[in-house]
Amino acid sequence: MQDQYRTVTREGVHEIEINKSRFLCALAPAATEEEAQAFIARIRKEHPTARHHCFAYVLGADGSVQKASDDGEPGGTAGVPMLQMLVRREVRYVVAVVTRYFGGVKLGAGGLIRAYGGVVGEALDVLGTVTRQRFRLATVTVDHQRAGKLENDLRATGRAVREVRYGADVRIEVGLPEAEVEGFRAWLADSTAGTAGLELGGEAYGDA
User: 3-state class of 129 per DSSP?
Assistant: First the structure.
């Protein structure tokens, strides 16, 4: 797994106008191809009279899934420059749809490439990106008496507390960079006089 990746912070739309043609770039995070395709279908439905709905998406922390479509524009002038912009910006788990309302003036191949790639780049600037870091999930089990102080200490030392569950004892789920697991084990034993349990789980991504 990649140690980290960058993705778009939120869903949003950015619009530019070139020679009376309107280019609306809708960006959204997407975890799977199904989510990406559903977003593309939704944008098509929102703009039924537009001539083109070109798209590109990059999935996987390593960018292993990449798809693009020119949707009727001359080959290689829309989806490919959109995809190239996503890849160049190193964003992952993201889908971009550019809806074009034709303004009557032909832009030529070079103009289309600049317009489609450019509006995606501008949309990324406007919406912003966030870095997601790979974590090892770990569950700390501690008695109720120590739980409050331990949770405060975890947050104070910058640990990613993901969930706290109360039962016969208290289970606190944290996200740890792999390199910090053994150091955390020692810190936990010291902080709780050896009374807390630590159970390592799988891996996930969270905000860096």
Answer: strand
